[in-house]
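Researcher: Next entry: Type IV pilus biogenesis protein PilM (Salmonella sp. 96A-29192).
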Amino acid sequence: MFYLTGVPEIRSCIIHVAGADIYFHREIKMKSFIVISLLFLWLAFYGNLRDDNDSYAASLREGKALLFLNYVNVFDSYYELNPDYNGDVTHNVTAPSWLPANVDIQMFIENKRGYVFMPAYQGVYNNILKRTEGSVLVGVSDSSSLVTEAGRINKPSFIPSGYIVYMR
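Model: Predicted structure:
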């Protein structure tokens, strides 16, 4: 909140900004006053802009997590019909028309184990864990293993380091 009180000739004034009072007891030149006012307006605008950016970033994280989990569901349906397949099934799996295509999400079956994986984006893994209630079937890959809530699991060579991974 920003407002100004003072005498009409602006010899003294009080500026109230977010509960803090700034007092001016000497004569203020109009240019200085305008500069200070613009500075306060810019600070207020910047604070709102940061809030909007944080909201937007949270929406992106949520969207990526939901997209990944939708791909997991589509993959599970494919896997149930083709458990003996070995190799990359990314292009074999048919997603519903409402599910946007995402080239970052890959699907693989090896030795009757299924994997869905995508690059780990900041905050997305935690969002997925929250939505799956801490599932041990979801982890993050490092150079040699998949790190899950249950511990470390050997990582297949086709999964790069730094990826969010669903295992079946």
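Model: Note for the record: DSSP finds two helices and ten strands in the chain.
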